[in-house]
Write a structure and sequence with these properties.
This protein has 267 residues and is mainly alpha-helical. Helices cover 73% and strands 4% of the residues. The strands form 2 sheets. Strands 1-2 form a two-stranded antiparallel sheet. It has a two-stranded antiparallel sheet with strand order 3-4. Helix 1 packs antiparallel against helix 6, helix 3 runs antiparallel to helix 4 and helix 4 crosses helix 5. The two termini are 15 Å apart.
Length: 267
């Protein structure tokens, strides 16, 4: 029996230190909700989780871009729907102006309405969406994934000759009305193509948005399996570590008391 070196106390202190460290780590996991409190907990898992987090954030940004592009395309279609009604009425006016029972004064009144509708279409061609022209005919590159690959959203051009020939026509004479009707019919044909283009853009972007949402959900689930703590399992570990700390503390006290037995020999 020795006094200077208490091997039992040293061993108990070491085990108590280990149990206390595990208890602290378990407490940190439960309080943070993450089983990777520090990189050494899972070196590879921490690296993978970091990449997943970055990719998920990029997907959220891409989905925001796609949503804005959808809103832009829907705005385009809203204007084009009004342009369709204007052209429809203009074609009707061009036919009315060819009525042989109408005088030139009557045709002048038709021309006044025709010109007003044409001005409306010309005004629509200048509209923009957050500073980006809606109808300049330029294509837009919309990001579609976390690597910033793009989809080309085909543009619509309301400033082209097909439309300006119709909006600038004169139906104040019978001959002019005949020419105007041909121009308006061509504009309506072009408009149907443009609206189909916008519709195709919206369908493509909606599919992209759905795909991004599914991808984000799958990546989030995979990331959760790597870094999120299972509270039930961790609570069981926490209870075990807590008991070990209490037991270790009690045994350390007992080990520290052992050298006192040597005093009895000196009595």
């Amino acid at each position: 029996m020795v006094i200077n070196t208490n091997v039992s106390a040293q061993g108990s202190a070491r085990l108590l230190t280990d149990s206390s460290a595990m208890l602290s780590k378990s407490l940190a996991r439960l309080s943070s909700g993450s089983k990777i409190v520090s990189p050494e907990d899972d070196v590879a898992g921490a690296a993978v989780s970091l990449r997943f987090d970055a990719q998920i954030n990029r997907i959220n940004a891409v989905n925001s871009n796609v949503g804005n592009a959808i809103s832009m395309a829907q705005t385009q279609d809203g204007f084009l729907g009004k342009v369709a009604k204007a052209l429809d009425r203009m074609s009707e006016l061009a036919v009315l102006s060819q009525d042989v029972t109408k005088s030139d004064a009557d045709r002048g009144l038709y021309q006044q309405e025709y010109t007003t509708l044409g001005s409306y279409i010309d005004d629509v061609s200048t509209k923009d969406f957050n500073g980006v022209s809606l109808f300049a005919g330029s294509d837009q590159a919309v990001t579609t994934d976390s690597d910033a690959n793009t989809f080309t959203m085909n543009g619509v051009d309301l400033t082209g000759s097909t439309y300006t020939d119709a909006t600038g026509a004169d139906i104040s004479t019978t001959g002019g009305a005949v020419s105007a009707l041909d121009a308006v019919k061509s504009a309506l044909t072009q408009l149907s193509t443009d609206r189909a283009t916008v519709g195709a853009n919206v369908v493509r972007l909606n599919n992209t948005s759905d795909q991004l949402t599914i991808q984000r959900d799958n990546l989030t689930a995979a990331n959760s399996r790597i870094k999120d703590v299972d509270v039930a399992d961790e609570s069981t570990r926490f209870a075990r570590y807590n008991i070990l700390v209490q037991a270790g503390t009690a045994m350390l006290a007992q080990a520290n008391a052992l050298p006192q037995s040597a005093l009895r020999l000196l009595g």
